[in-house]
Amino acid sequence: MSKVFFDVAVSLDGYIAGPNRGPRNPLGDRGTSVHNWMFQTASFRKMIGLPGGDTGEDDAVVRAVFERSGAYVMGRHMFEEGEIGWPEEAPFHAPVFVLTHTPREPWPRKGGTTFTFVTDGMKSALEQAKAAARGKDVRISGGAATIRQFLKAGLVDEFTLHVSPVIQGAGVSLFDHMAHDDFKMEQAQVIASRLTTHITYRVAR
Amino acid sequence: MSKVFFDVAVSLDGYIAGPNRGPRNPLGDRGTSVHNWMFQTASFRKMIGLPGGDTGEDDAVVRAVFERSGAYVMGRHMFEEGEIGWPEEAPFHAPVFVLTHTPREPWPRKGGTTFTFVTDGMKSALEQAKAAARGKDVRISGGAATIRQFLKAGLVDEFTLHVSPVIQGAGVSLFDHMAHDDFKMEQAQVIASRLTTHITYRVAR
To answer: Closest Cα of chain A to B133: distance in Å?
Structure first.
């Protein structure tokens, strides 16, 4: 059955992006530093149309996340930033359901990405994404507020944190405003590379 | 040569203790949850005078930290909380140097722990601890403010985070008020157990 997951890189102090974020600075100041392990992988480079790159643990992790993702759900802010920043061939190559209050016709892009705009809430978006995923998993892409919204609603099955050896100091904190009892989890898998530690947690139901 | 390190359990959202901490509640509300992996190890139980316990990855980690620690440096708050909470045979079994502004005679305890009160600053405490460690390593025990003070001064060689599958939501945040450029690090070792992920970082000089 289709699982619902999210997958983010975090700094040691829990930030997924730096300060001063905006459409022209989607990762925030110094926000690339938590993604250094990913940028150099062959699978990431291929996703954005570049040749070469490292093959190793980190690459296998990136490839597995890409291959399991049959559809995506994302928040409006992430879409609006991406609409400016992503290349014409958007890096999803699968259906993407965007949570918004503004109706808009579906927007197909080169390479298999179609953005569908969902105005009737997160559960509707998730149902549509599950149907579109054809047995693969649904990835909650982000941003942080959207991920927290799905976690608090008990709609996430598992998640992976790529813990990067960086102090961000300020920015977008993944678990900001989450409380001890919002959800419980157990550790499911740990993969260590030279640059980062990939930890997967199963959310307890 | 004697290394300077710290070693703390953190929640996924970066807290080393829960809210409402005080002398009678040293780990704060629900603060024990980030230490569950440790409480059940044979080495921890032995340290506080209890029999039995698990032997496995987590136990090996606890034992290694205890065995490498030739001396300790701690802040005044941690000492004052411990002075009430620790048993007569304090769990260090080694010299402990307490940073304080209030002079006091050394206080020897059963089992090899002697608390020495240092009023002339962190560097003095560290020098005394290094001399007392007789070639073993010096552990900066805590609390968080003391650890940050040593990190910012460039006096830490490496540190281990035991990343626990828990959201704390509030409390004492380890890297609070640290900035991106305060220190750089690289990942040195990752040990995964069923309950937690132990990640050791080397601080770049």
So the answer is: 29
